Every structure is written in structure tokens, then in C-alpha cells.
Amino acid sequence: MTDNQTVQAYIEAWTHSIESISELVAPLPEGSWNRPTECPGWSVRDIVAHIIAIESELLGDPRPIHSLPRDLRHVTSDFARYVELPVDKRRCHTALEMTSELEYTVIRRARALRNAKQGPEDLVRLPLGPLARDVPYHQLLRIRVFDVWVHEQDLRRALHTPGNLDSPGALITRDFLLPQLPKAVADKAGAPAGTTVVLDVTGPVEFLRTVRVDAAGHGTVDESISLAPDVQLTMDWETYLRLACGRGRPGPVTVDGDKELAERILSNFAVTI
């Protein structure tokens, strides 16, 4: 796949997920917008507000002028405050206001993506407040696919409307998360040198990966099979997604091998912000 084909694949995956969100929330009655999600402190309304806010900022819209309440316990960092401000601003918006703004934002953003002049490697600004940085255009698109698809799944679980677990966004999310497995095993869980950990994921998106920790304590991940790993973790795709994205401690997870090390890995599995 060429770089331009990769960019187009990311745009198509983003379009599929964000339009799925729009279709999902369009018929919701007012009360359903207040349903809690697995994102700490956030309701269905808040997730949709977050998506609107990020896509609007990418369009160049100014951030809203707003003061956050002081009693939001889930807001614990400057980055969290940055993300929370446009979300809190929309907490008084009605269902119609939310769906109308989402639809309008999707239309504008889709047009901007179609007309974009950036090449795949051109540097663009990733708007993350205190974590903002310049990244290649293709990387920004990949991050947006990941964020939108993961939040689509947050909404589906909150609304008991499963779907799209094997969509284009799901496959891009898999490839986004897998390189970060060594961080969970070697860095956060502190697996000792020489450790091998096998991850066997089943379901709509299935894969088998081995994380190896070298003599220097550095972790790598590959597709080769380890016949006698120190730990093997077997779980379904949605459980893996929720663990990697810090959505609580779902299950079931089958553990073979070193139970104490497995527990450390599972307790440090989240690799997202």
C-alpha cells in the first residue's frame, strides 16, 4: 500500500466510525444522553462532545471560553483540563443541539479531508493542549481513527448496541495498540530480562503476539510463536481493547504460567493517556 493509499484508508475508516456514531446517537431520547460510560466522569453526551471538540479544533475553530467547575474529580492533570473544557461547555446542550452539531462537524471535516493538500509526511499540528506537537499528516489521521473508533465502542457498550468490532477502524486500532505491548510488559509491569509473554486474542479481530524482554530489559513484540512462555494471556478482542484503553478490568482472561507476573501485566495493561 502506498503512502497515499494509507491516508485514504485512514480517511475511510474515520468516516465509517464517525458516521456510525452519528447514526447511533441520532434517535436517542434526551435521557439516554446522560448514560454513564466507561470513560471516568463521562456520559454519552460527553463522549460526543469530545469528538465534536477535537474535530472542530482540527478545522481551526476557536476553543470555547469557559471556566471548569472545581469539583470534577476525574480531572487530575493539565491535559485532562484541556480535554474537559469543551466537554463541560456542552453539558447543558439538548439532544437536538448535540446531534445537529455533530452532523455539521462531520460534514465540514469530511469536506476538509477531501480537499486537504498535505502529503502523508507533511507535518501538521496535533492539538492536545499541553501535549500538542507536530506529527506527519498520516499519523494524525491514524490517531483520529483510533480515538473515534474507541469512543464508538464506548458509546455502544453504554447504549447496549454492539457492533463494528471488526470494522476498518478496529483493524487500525489493533495496529495502533500492538506496538505498545512492550511498554505494558517490560516498562510498566517490570518483567525481568529473558521473559516471554504470549498474548492470544480471539474473536472478531484475532491475533497471536509474543513480547520478549532482552538482557537490557527492553521489550519487543513479534508474531513468532514461543513454545514455553513465562506467561500466556488469552482473551477476546473486546477485553483486550478495554484493558489496553484503561476501561476497567473486564474479563474473562485466561492466565497460564507465572500468575504473579500476569497480574502485574494486567494491572498495568493500559497504554493510552
Automatic annotation (TrEMBL):
GO MF annotations, alphabetized:
metal ion binding
Q: InterPro entries attached here?
A: DinB/YfiT-like, Maleyloyr_isom, MDMPI_C-term_domain, MDMPI_metal-binding
* All copies of domain Mycothiol-dependent maleylpyruvate isomerase metal-binding, residue ranges: 16-156
Q: Where is the MDMPI C-terminal domain?
A: 181-264
> SUPFAM superfamilies from the xrefs?
DinB/YfiT-like putative metalloenzymes
Highest taxon in the source lineage: Bacteria
Q: What is this protein called?
A: Mycothiol-dependent maleylpyruvate isomerase metal-binding domain-containing protein
